[in-house]
Every structure is written in structure tokens, then in C-alpha cells.
Records
---
Amino acid sequence: MVVMSLTLRTMLALDVVASGRPEVLAGQDDLDRVVRWVHVTEVDDMEDLLGGHEVVLTTGLPLVGPTADPARFVEQLARSSACGLIVELGPRLPALPDILVSDARRLGLPLVALHAPVRFVSITEAVHRLIVGEQYLGLEFAQRTHEVFTNLSLDSADASAIVAEASDLIDAAVVLEDAGHHVVALAQHEQAPGDLLRGWEERSRRAPVLEEPGPSGPEGWLTCPVGLRGSPWGRLVAPGRAVDPERTAMVMQRAAQALQLSRLVERDATRLQFQAQESLLQELVEGRVQDEADGLARARALGMRAAPTYVPVVALFEPTSLPDQIARQRRARAQLESIFEALREARVSAIAGGIGDERVGIIMALRSSTREDTALEALARALPARSVTPSPSSGPVLGVGRSSSTLLVAASRMRTVAHIAEAARALPATSAPWFRSTDVRLRGLVAQLQDDERLLGFAESELGPLLAHEAERGGGLVDLLRTYVRLQGNKAAVAQAAHISRQALYGRLRKIESILMVDLDDADSSLSLGVALLVHDIRQGGSPA
């Protein structure tokens, strides 16, 4: 809620003033000055009577008569920072002197003529009632602002919550940026993110960083530094021109203090950047960002450059059994930091964030001159090596999805990429630095689901009788079936691989068919047995021949 201050424009709209048929003769562009008080005078010496920001009411006595000096009178008001002069016309003063009007225009002093009589006491009562009421509401607003940010500090609220509350209080968008002019938190209010953040870094650099809250830059942003005096680490920005600059500045200053307290508690400069990127990535993956321009604007504001190619990657770390939630959070934080550090070392432009237990999602933005494999190699080299111990330094498995020319499509593939990483982790140890879907295929899926009761039941129903026969009598029928499936039923090739005659092969295949009660020439039977053998071999820790 923002309380509007009384201005000369709003004062002229009051019924008691409007009844006098006011006409603005000078200073039309300065009617939005805040009115502190209303002063009625019929003397021509006002120098010591005004304190600034008053509206002066008169019936014109200082402007008529042999000793009147209209030019001197209006100059006094301008020097005293008066908000304006309202003169009631009448028989004594049917029109304002031309010199008064011209001097008021030259000095930028609003000059208003009332063409009908008005009781000045009614004006002063109405205006002073509004001013006192507005001052009371201002105190109430200040108290509410203090309570809001005090409670946020006590609750250890993060930057997003603090910025959101500031936005609600001033009823406008608020942006928190770091020292590099990258957006780390945003409360967009009723504005589209794409419009609000388009070209943010360039626009922000045109708005100088001030030491105190105040307007800055060609767009009239109201800004407030965040951090210790002389060494700010960020800045709060209310884009656009503030409706009530004084109250907006107060809210921004209290928000800045809350952010600094939050930072002192956290003692980590990169936390805000992590949170902002993670929040955006989750919104993209969940499909809550529907407009490509909005997504790109937000990503660019976080430091990721626009590019012709976007590649989704999932870094899957070793599972952990840590029972303590705080310990798990610290571990996840360490993993995310390792990804950010690797991206910096590899000089890969990207956004990244946690997308589930032990998973960090990454969207790489690649220039047309950068090959995808080159970027992946640089990232893999920068990451710690994989380890069998569940420690933060254990390197992850990298799953890589299909690239896209759009950010939103790349993000939509993140869940599939997570599956690829899960499947790759279940494969036998390999030196491969990353995995695509063509690397894991069916074997990867089966490896991932090997403990699923439904899969085990399927494998047992397909192979159980043959495995029981082999355990009791031997004979190598399981190995022969494996060879038959691998060679896609080519009997001549199977006989050669098994070093037996065609006739002997036919007999053994009929034996297998009899035990399993299947037709090996049936494509569905061959496929089902192949999957069942794959499940069996993976669970035995072996590899299909």
C-alpha cells in the first residue's frame, strides 16, 4: 500500500477549491509538488514567514495599491520554495498583473486564479485535515514497513521474500541486482518479465550507483545500494518513476537493511545468484514460463548470454544416506557450488540449479562457433572425478539431452535428461565423460529399473524354467539362447559362434523351446527373452556376450 501525498494538483481538485473555478496561469508542469501547509496572507513581506512547500492564499492585497510590488512578491515565494500562489479575483483585483504571471512562469512557480469567491478558512480546514491525516497514515505506513522487514529478518527470509514484500509495499516492481548488474531477485508486480528485464544490464549501467536512495539514470529509476557504506554488493531498483518517491525510498532502504542482515547471517555472496538461477530453472522445467522472450530476458539478466543453441544437461551425484536434513542441504549446496565453479572454469555460459535429490540441472548457451562436444569436454574436465564415496567432492554422472534453438524447449527436455543420467549411473564403470540417450538405450533403462518387482517378475516368468534346468543339469542352454538373441536368430551365425553343427543347434533350440514353451522364431518371444536375459545379466553383475 502506498499513501498518496497531497499535491497542489490534488488540492485544486478538492470541492472547496474547485467551487472557486481555479485557473492555472503559470507552473502547469509543477503542480505535483508535495504540499506541506497552507498559509493565508494579505501582507507583501513573506520572507520570514515561510518554511518551504506551502501554498499561499491571498485576496490580492499584496498585489494592488501604490506600494505593491508583484515581481518582488512572487520572487520571495520562489526563494522560499513555496508550492504555489492562489489568488482570489474580485472587485479589488479583477485580473492578475501581467508582470506577476510572466515572472511566475519564469520562476516555475505555480500561479492559480480563483474566479469565484471561496472561504479561505474552508480551504485551510480541508487541506490541513488532509495533511494531518496523511501524516498520520505516513507514520502508520512507516510502522508497518518497520514491522514487515523486522519480521522478515527474524525469520531469516531469503532475498526473494524480502524483494516481494518491498514490491507489495510500494505497489510496483522491484529488482535486486548484484554488483555486476545481474538480476538475482525479482518481484515483477504486474509487469511481464520480458518487458521489465529486456536489456537489463545495459540499462542498469546507464543508471549510476548512488550512495543513498534516490532517482538515477535516464529512466528515472529509484535505486538504493545494498551493503556496507562505500562497498555495496548489490542494488535495489524500482524501475520506472515512483508514484511516491519519499515512501518508496523508505521502503527500499529498509529492504536493503534486511537484505544485508540476511547476507551477514548467510556469509555467502553467491547464494543469491544460486537461488535466482535455481528458481528460474525450476520455472522453466515445470513449464511455468510460457514466453520465450520472457525466459531469455530473465536468463540474460542472470548472466547467461543469448545464443543460437541451448543444451540441457543433468549432473547426477552419488546417492547419500545422510539422515540429517541440514547435512543433506549442505551437501546439495556443495554440489551446486562445484557445478558453478566448473562452468566458470570451462567458460561455459549457462544457468544451473538443483532439480531434485542429487541432481543439478544445467542449460548451456553455446555460441555458433562452439561445438557441443567441446563445451561438454571442458565442463567434464572442470568437474571433480567420480567417486564411490558419497561426499560433496564426488564427481557426477553427466546426462546430455538434445540441443534446441530455444531456451524453453531445451528446458522441457530436462526430465528426459535426468532419466539418461540415472540410467548411465546404473551402467558398468566406464571412462565416458558424459552420456546421451544413444549411450544408455535399453540397457540403461533396465539397469535403472533392475530392482523393480515387476521387472523381476517378468524376467522370472520368461527365463525361470530354463535357469532352473541349467542349475540342475547344465548344458549351456542359457549361453546358447543369449547368442541366439544377440545374432537376431541367424541360425548359421549362431552355429558358427557356438562351434556346433546346424543339426545339433536345431536340437538344442527345440530343447529351449520345450522348456520355455515358446516359439523362438516368433519376434515377440525373441524380444521378450532378450529383455529377460538383459535383466538377468545385469543383476548377476555380468555383461551380455
---
Amino acid sequence: MATVTPQALTRTVQDFLSEAAGAVVLENGAVAFDLAQSKYSISGEYNRCLLHLWSAERNSVRRVLDAEIKNGTLRLAVQRLGQTRPSKLEICRERDRRSPTARRVARAAYEQKLRRTLDRHFPEFKVIRLTSGVDLEKSFGPIYARGLVRQGRSAFAVLGVNAQETQASIDAALTFGILWLEVCRQAQAANVLVEGLKMFVPNGTSALVRERMANLNRDAAKWALFELDEGHDALVEIDCGDRGNVATRLVHAADDNAARERFRASIATVQEVLPNCEVAVLSAAEVVFRWRGLEFARARLGAIPGSFRNAEEIVFGVGAEERVLERHNQNTFAELAHCLRDTRHPYGARQDPLWRLRPERWLESLVVGDVSVVDGRLEPSCRYSQVPAFSASDRAMIDVLTTTHAGRLAVVELKADEDIHLPLQGLDYWSRVEWHHARGEFPRFGYFDGRELSAEKPLLFLVAPALHVHPATDTLLRYLSPEIEWEFVGIDERWREGVKVVFRKWPDRSVRHGSESAA
């Protein structure tokens, strides 16, 4: 690797990390930091490039000597402070660190194991087909083993995922299971009745798939979910029939006025540098500052070392980057804020990372500003963004939670780019909101400020640019439970200039053009 200046190294690392929010940092081949839960700061001052990484578990500072980007991985030659011998640090966008060969071997072995499992536990069925081959036309990659089992004129689609895949791939499996069911039904229409789908996931990983499957249409198909212990060939069927069995908890809504008063000085400091930036209250002890949806600073209360008192501080940075605002770096903070202002606007330079970052949060900021642009029934003065709803399997963040003028809850799920998982992600958030609503928890947890909420189940709005809707979306929506009143809202591609609805769809497949509200 060629020697470069500390300033060039700093820019290389900053540019890579700014677009690698979920990256992992490997040292000596082991994961040292997960940037989804960790923070970093990078400095090019004093003719040295210093990378500081920290989390709740550990803290490290490395001097960066050289950098190379290859196959989605940033490879750094680094030096520990106080030591002369350099070492290697890798920052990887791809969380699955197996080699392509190792992945192919594991998937081929699982395919055979799944075949033996089907033969042993479902002897009345004959395995007609089982493959993990790539079929890009139908959106299937090699991660999932797909097949068909048949008994006479009856059959079931089969989809399984092995224990070496990431949890994200396991959570996404139901999307591809539904699409595989549809493929099997179309292929076998003249021969057999494909009654439903049998899904197989690793032991202890089914929580999110189960929650989603519980809200599918049981008249449209028979759904079965199994956990497979590959080591012991043990199979356990998971009960997906109880829609009320959702493992989720809600966090209390913060007192917005009290938090803004507490951080009045910090808010004034940031807004003096970047007027009209968005201020959002996360909790009683933290507020966040955003520009067109992109977070660039936070004000928070932190413990003073060696005492039991708290002190107010401002930290700034984009993504996982974070540094405390102090006198010596005030110019750096101002440069970041002014760069955001000059770059992140509807007509900014599209190739700039700051313009491209977090498009969904940019879209969300516009919708939160006036949620009625999605549907005229929605109440603009009564909405929350990024509402945490914790579950057994993940920490879900509901894009926008609001109500209609009549007090009916509404979940708004937003996508700025094509995403095959939009319908089931929306379903996931809807099910959590419905669960908490049925138990009267939103008023008890401080949401909607005493407003009387309708007893009706929530509405679900799925919003995406009209030309960036995944072709599989219609198929997936057809399999949602009829109890879910959803509406798909296609918006103009130039949404950064202002959100404008160009079409709407409802469960009966009807389409209505224009920006008028649904009846």
C-alpha cells in the first residue's frame, strides 16, 4: 500500500465510514467493534491520523499509517499508541465474513440436511424439488434452500435457512417464503394444489418471523414455521396462530417542552451555527439535531468523572462518528454544519456522500413536517417519528406514528429506494402498534397528550417513490391478513422538492391517480 498523507488518510476513512453504518471492525480476525452499537472519531491533526473507537465494552485508539479499500473492506495499517510495530485493522461493510467457498459449502450441506429432515419428519410427503440456486428474475439468491413436497394432489412450498447465515437473512426469510409459495402455485396450477408454506429457521431465531407470519392471511394459505436444530436433527413447530402473542415493549414518550427547556443553551448554540435545523427530543436527557433528516449533533447529560453530578455536553459527527464539541474544534463543527447546509438540499450534488446519506430519514423529515401529504385524513399536529418498539428479536423504530382526525392510529412506513421487504416491515410495525393499542398503552406511556384514540385497529400506510416500487410488492401485499387496512402510496420521484402523491392502492387492487386523499 502506498504511503499517503495523514489528511488523505483521514478523508479516506471518513468517506468509507460515512456510508458503512452497520460495518464491523476486525482486529486479528476477530470482531472488535460493531458500528451499529459503537462510536468512533477520527482526527487528522498534528500530522497524524488517529482513529478512536469505543463501545460499552471497550475503548481503543489507533494511529492509521496506510489504507486500502478492496471488495467492500477498508484495510488499515495501524499502530497502537506507545508501540512501534504496526498491525492490521479491517472495517467490513459485509457482516458475513465467510469466504464465497465457505458459504457455498455450508449452503450445499444444509440443502442435503433439509432434505433428510423432510424425509424423516414428513414421511407422507415426497420431496419433489430442493434447490438453493440463484434465480434473479424471481428475486431468489443462494441464501435460502427452496423446495416442494407433495402428497397426492396436495403440496406445500418449502423454504429453509441455515444457522450460519446472519440474523438479518433469517428475519428476511418470510418475504422470500411468500414469493416462493407464489412461484410454486403458478408452476403447479394444473397438477396439484399448493396449500401453503412450510418454513425452517435455525433453533432460537424464529421470533421476528413468527410475529410476521401471525399476521398473514390464513384463508390464502396454510402457514407453518419450524425451528431446526441442525446439530441434533431436532425439529420443533412454532405456534403462529396467536396474533396477540407479540414480544414487544414500548418506551415512554419524553416531555418535549421540559427537555427543550433543559437543553435551551445547547439548542441555541447549535442553531446559531445552523439556523432552522431540526430539533428532536429523544429522552429527558438527550436531544438530537438533524438537517433534512441527517443527524449531525446531539446534546446530552453525561456523568462528570469522579462525581455524582451530570454535565450538559454537545457531541457532533455523522453516522457513528462522534466527538465532543469543545473550544478547539468549534471550527470543525461549523464546517460540518455549513457543508450540510450547502450540500444537502434538493438541488445539491448527487454524488456527494452527505447528499446521498439516509434518504429515508430525509423523506421522513418532510412527512413529519406535514403528514397530511400522505393522506388528508391524517392529523398534522399529532405525530411522532422514530418511535422505539422493542421486541424479543430487535429494536424496531417505527418511521411515523400518527392519528387520523377521528383519532384512529396510523402507522406510516417509508422507503426512499426500492426495497423488497417494505410490505413485511410495515406489517411488523403495524402488529406492534396494534398490540400496544389494544392494551391501552399509548396514553399510559405519554403519547398523544390525552387525545382520545379510536378503538379501531390502526391503519397502515406504505410510502415509496412510484418508480422505485419492487415488482414483488403486489404479491406480498396479497398475503397480508384482511384485518389489516393498508394503503400503498406512490409518490413523485422528485420528493426532495416536496412530497406529491401520484397513485394509491388498496387491498382490492384498485388504483386511484392523483394527489387526492383516499375515501
